[in-house]
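Journal club side-thread
Mid-discussion, someone asked how the predicted structure for our own chain would compare to the paper's figures. Pasting it here so we can look after the session.
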Amino acid sequence: MELFFRKFGHDGDQPLIILHGLFGVSDNWVTFARRIATEGFEVFIPDQRNHGQSPCSGNFNYLALTDDLFEFIDEHKIERPMLLGHSMGGKVAMHFSLENPELVKKLVVVDITLKAYPPRTQHKQIIRAIRQVNLAGMKNRRQVEDQLVAIIPDQRIRQFVLKNLHRNAQNHFEWRLNIDGIETNLDDMFDAIQTKETFNKPALFIKGGISDYILLEDFGPIRKNFPHAEIVTIAGASHWVHVEAPERFFQLTCGFLTGNPSWYQDVKKQVALN
């Protein structure tokens, strides 16, 4: 599957692939990508299948998403990239790294782990909102947001969902999501990664301090598959760590990815204390 992607940085720099989460798009990561590209990275941000400007498919599970990533790396001749994935994207990055450890240089996983998760009310809420909003006759994004308020009261989540809204060739609003494909396969997005394979290279797991996606009891299982994993908590942040604590998130990931030991250790201590 040929994925739409955004690219930042210079050819020949260390490649970094960023994988967005469920209901996300590549545009969510543009600010971060532009900034980290100045640190010597060639940054690729694909829209994963059924999201953004990438193709739609009724086949939507981690096997398909991992295959898409393999094809993307092969198609663009990307050698030994670093991977950074948030939520669903983090699970894709873990799958790929465990299956193809020789192809990945470093791994960053943001607020997700290997275990299975129960279905989240929030995800079903987003699907219901997208299905119920009537886009006919909408003149601006504010009018669309006003319709979303009753179903999604959290403004942060509304803004996240609205990233999927765009105008088509007829200048009418439409969603850039294959909502049917996502809803039909939603349970597959909560599957566990069950393998004895290990990724014996540097890995960083970032947990939001007020998120329940990674718990203390998950630290041991993470290190079974990722023996060299660093697990760092950014206090006060929820599942959207990179949005709610952008500076701390950037300093931490940049220190890890650039491999500056003193900078990374200093940042890690600072994040843990905040």
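Post-session note: The chain has a mean pLDDT of 93.
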